[in-house]
Amino acid sequence: MIEGDWSEFVPVRLPVEWEFKGEPGIHPEIEGVTGREVVLLIKKRFTKFEKFLAKILRAPKIVRRTMHPTQSMLWELIDGTRNFSEICVIMKSLYHEEVAPVDERIKAYLEVFVRLNVATVLRPKEEE
User: Fold this and answer.
1) Into how many domains does the chain fold?
2) Which domain range does residue 50 map to?
3) 3-state secondary structure string across the chain
4) pTM over 0.70
């Protein structure tokens, strides 16, 4: 999906509604990072016919997508202040073999976030 050396890329959450669920889990000693499960609140987009059916069937207008603990931790870490390499070091220190190989696993998680349109990956600015 994204080509090149990821080490300096900066993953960033896009404006999307989300919330925490459950008790704090494993987490680094970083202010604002809790280790709790993250639930994305994704608004459904209906066609006219789907709106009609949704109204009759009383379908929810929001999909609640609960993330796996490692995805939740990554979500908390991609606040735009850390680059890919820094995030990989933190994730490896917390989850060890569970995220091995860490670079490939974190790339895969980030690509899912990008496909869901809830995150983006910014390229580093070129030095002049």
Assistant:
1) 1
2) 10-122
3) CCCCCCCCCEEEECCCEEEEECCCCCCCCCCCCCCCEEEEEEECCCCHHHHHHHHHHCCCCEEEEECCHHHHHHHHHCECCCCHHHHHHHHHHHHHHHHCCHHHHHHHHHHHHHHCCCEEEECCCCCC
4) yes
